[in-house]
């Protein structure tokens, strides 16, 4: 009897212990995915909506008209670019798109850093359209479609479905800023373009503020090539506006637009300061002017007020004109703006 009772109690105790140590089974494995429900579907719809919104935003910023007033159809995705304008080439590189540039003009190749080693080169005055068709760009930036006789040089490219965006020479800084934004919009970099223009405006205001403190403006002649034919500019050119911003006066303000001067015209202008952005080394350009026969009586030469400034910052109208402005201000008034 005792043995039976002990056996019974032992079995009862083991059952009790087993019951205490067990836990209810989980209703689902710990790592099983949550069933797709309204929340998951909502997140998926939000993702799609966001992508659609981005696409709509890009489409809304793509220009439908180029800077010459021509209707254009820009692809939503730009992978290959032909830039036959150094100012545009430099801007594209600053926007981080140098790897997409497949063809440039000779000046871009000479002055713009960061281009691919195998970039093709085309003369913008006589563009090699068959070559461009072989390259199959998404967009071509040029300053004019027409040749000297009024024939559209890019007709076959346009017929092949290539977008040709024309950007004529701008005559004011405000127009240059519009050019910058246009290019940025074309290549899907609208916000970056807005930032560049906004930073330009801040710098321009600072420089203009300093320029307004000048009570006795110096006369300045800026030349891009030397004798026998001196290339410079009068009014109606963005560079004239730049001289005014730093508080100087264009010694050739009686001229209009880009001009080629005879030596006598330059002597008659008698500038207080001569700036040179001629090709070649800075030292050679300055020494050439200081040692020109018959120029010893010009005020700038007498006072050794002849300075070299960066050629590309002057002649490539984009955001880097701010650098040229600073160089001008330092050279003319010997203090950075």
UniProtKB/TrEMBL annotation:
Superkingdom of origin organism: Bacteria
Region (Disordered): 23-54
Protein name: ABC transporter substrate-binding protein
Key words, A-Z: Signal
InterPro entries registered for this protein in UniProt: ABC_Transporter_SBP, ABC_transptr_periplasmic_BD
Gene3D superfamilies hit by this protein: Nitrogenase molybdenum iron protein domain
Family: Belongs to the bacterial solute-binding protein 8 family.
Biased composition (Low complexity): 29-41
Lineage: Bacteria, Bacillati, Bacillota, Clostridia, Lachnospirales
Family matches, as PROSITE patterns: FE_B12_PBP (PS50983), PROKAR_LIPOPROTEIN (PS51257)
A Pfam family annotated for this UniProt entry: Peripla_BP_2
Signal peptide: 1-18
Organism: Diplocloster modestus
Domain Fe/B12 periplasmic-binding: 80-336
Coiled coil feature spans: none
Keyword field contains Signal: yes
């Amino acid at each position: 009897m005792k043995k039976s009772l002990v056996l019974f109690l032992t079995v009862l105790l083991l059952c009790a212990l087993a019951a205490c140590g067990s836990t209810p089974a989980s209703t689902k494995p710990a790592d099983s995915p949550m069933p797709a429900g309204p929340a998951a579907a909502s997140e998926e719809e939000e993702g799609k909506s966001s992508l659609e919104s981005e696409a709509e935003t890009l489409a809304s910023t793509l220009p439908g008209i180029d800077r010459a007033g021509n209707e254009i159809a820009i692809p939503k995705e730009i992978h290959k670019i032909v830039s036959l304008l150094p100012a545009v080439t430099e801007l594209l590189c600053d926007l981080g798109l140098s790897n997409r540039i497949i063809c440039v003009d000779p000046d871009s190749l000479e002055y713009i850093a960061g281009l691919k080693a195998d970039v093709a080169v085309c003369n913008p005055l006589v563009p090699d359209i068959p070559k461009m068709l072989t390259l199959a760009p998404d967009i071509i930036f040029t300053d004019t479609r027409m040749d000297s006789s009024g024939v559209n040089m890019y007709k076959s490219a346009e017929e092949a479905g290539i977008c040709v965006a024309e950007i004529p020479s701008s005559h004011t800084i405000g127009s240059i800023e519009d050019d910058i934004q246009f290019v940025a919009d074309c290549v899907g970099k609208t916000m970056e373009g807005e930032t560049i223009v906004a930073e330009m405006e801040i710098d321009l205001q600072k420089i203009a503020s300093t320029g307004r403190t000048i009570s006795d403006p110096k006369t300045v002649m800026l030349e891009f090539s030397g004798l026998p034919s001196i290339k410079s500019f009068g009014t109606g050119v963005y560079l004239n506006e730049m001289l005014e911003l730093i508080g100087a006066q264009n010694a050739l303000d009686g001229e209009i637009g880009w001009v080629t001067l005879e030596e006598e015209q330059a002597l008659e202008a008698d500038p207080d300061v001569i700036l040179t952005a001629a090709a070649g080394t800075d030292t050679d350009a300055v020494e050439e002017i200081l040692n020109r026969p018959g120029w010893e009586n010009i005020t700038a030469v007498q006072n050794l007020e002849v300075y070299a400034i960066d050629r590309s910052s002057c002649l490539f109208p984009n955001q880097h004109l701010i650098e040229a402005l600073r160089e001008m201000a330092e050279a003319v008034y010997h203090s950075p703006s």
